[in-house]
Amino acid sequence: MRMNKKILIALGDIALTKVLDHALSHKNYNTRISSDGEDVIEQIKNFTPDLILIDLVLPGKDGYEILSEKSLDRFITKIPVIIVSNSSATLEMKKIPSTPTIKDYLVKTH
Question: Other C-beta atoms within 10 Å of 56: how many?
Fold first, then answer.
């Protein structure tokens, strides 16, 4: 039996989170949602996802803090990440930690 890939969705946008959760679950991905930045690292450690979709703007800890913290933990540092954010500003992009596990940067629109 094939194991379903696990995806952690850590976005501040509840509507987009629901859409992604539904679409990914429909494609047989095992998803988990975290909308609180304080909770994301714990979710990563407990769920051990194959991919993380993360917003840079979250309540509690922001995405920058989470990515920095993730990069320091040898058990979770290699999990690939796709950043989903409202901002495509160069200044915002420069704040993102440089790591090969960040696979892409998607700009969401309102």
Answer: 23
Local structure of 47: helix, strand or coil = helix
* DSSP-derived 3-state class of residue 58: coil
- What's the CA gap between 100 and 97, in Å, rounded? 10
| pTM, to two decimals | 0.85
C-alpha to C-alpha distance for 6 and 57, rounded to whole angstroms:
22
Please name the residues in contact with 24: beta carbons below 8 A apart, sequence gap of 6 or more: 7, 9, 31
Q: Phi, psi at residue 27, to the nearest 5°?
A: -90, 15
Confidence of residue 18 (pLDDT cuts 50, 70, 90): very high
Distance of alpha carbon 55 from alpha carbon 25, whole angstroms: 19
pLDDT in tens, 53-109: 999 889 999 888 999 899 899 999 999 999 887 765 544 555 565 565 676 667 776
